[in-house]
Amino acid sequence: MKIGRLNHVGVATPSIEDSIRLYRDFLGATKIHEPFDLPEQGVRVCFVDVPNSQIELIEPLGADSPVHGFLAKSPKGGQHHVCFEVPDIIAARDELLAKGATVLRGGEPRIGAHGVPVIFVHPKDMGGVLIELMAEPEHH
Amino acid sequence: MKIGRLNHVGVATPSIEDSIRLYRDFLGATKIHEPFDLPEQGVRVCFVDVPNSQIELIEPLGADSPVHGFLAKSPKGGQHHVCFEVPDIIAARDELLAKGATVLRGGEPRIGAHGVPVIFVHPKDMGGVLIELMAEPEHH
């Protein structure tokens, strides 16, 4: 396994609309995609492009959203996860499990915001950082 | 002002050596730079390369290190800041101050880990995310 591109940094927020204003008006981000819902993950997301990567704004969607717990501890929002691309998501998952890492959902990949399979490694195994691994998107 | 490349994600850790093992052995990072001290900032740092960006591992250096406070809340470590490049750090600082943002150290830039001037925007103004802005390094 070899980590590839830093695909995006996930940032939890109580309001995507408010966060868009920060990235647009304070930092001058110019390419901000249309927000969309991922109901099966309990989140609404919005990608903000920078030249070499993206910020993924994440807002809770629905009462059971896993982001509510994050915002209960950090009401203003904050850094939620870091996502790297890997060439083979199943090989990466199997290697992590063999090394004793805790992969969320028992390691079963699901389709992420970019339409490709993703897995999450528990932060307890990665120095307190929630790591998302995603299959390389087609356009690379 | 227009944010440029996501230069790095800053990750606080109680031990750079332990974190290097995670990124090397679990995630397969292959280009890990030599750690070095930044005594005037109270940190020891280590850059881990991915194809399009870097992870900056940050360990407290000295009793007054600002990272001790972070680790007191998150003993395993965690995501500390996100750093974007800007073409003109002074213009960026002036624009942020004019818009009412709180820039740390009164907006006075200092030389960061890449040898170029950096400023930090207070997380209270940026949705709970500590944002570092750095002048574009020479090699870009």
From TrEMBL, chains A, B:
The record ties this protein, via CDD domains, to: MMCE
Question: Which keywords belong to this entry?
Answer: Isomerase, Metal-binding
Q: Top EC class per UniProt?
A: isomerase
According to its UniProt record, the EC number is: 5.1.99.1
Any coiled-coil regions, as ranges: none
Q: Which residues form the VOC domain?
A: 5-136
Q: Which GO terms describe its molecular function?
A: metal ion binding; methylmalonyl-CoA epimerase activity
- Give the superkingdom in one word: Bacteria
Q: What's a BP term from Gene Ontology annotated to this protein?
A: L-methylmalonyl-CoA metabolic process
- Family membership, please give it: Belongs to the methylmalonyl-CoA epimerase family.
Q: What is this protein called?
A: Methylmalonyl-CoA epimerase
- Please report the organism this UniProt entry assigns to the protein: Sandaracinobacter neustonicus
Q: Which gene encodes it?
A: mce
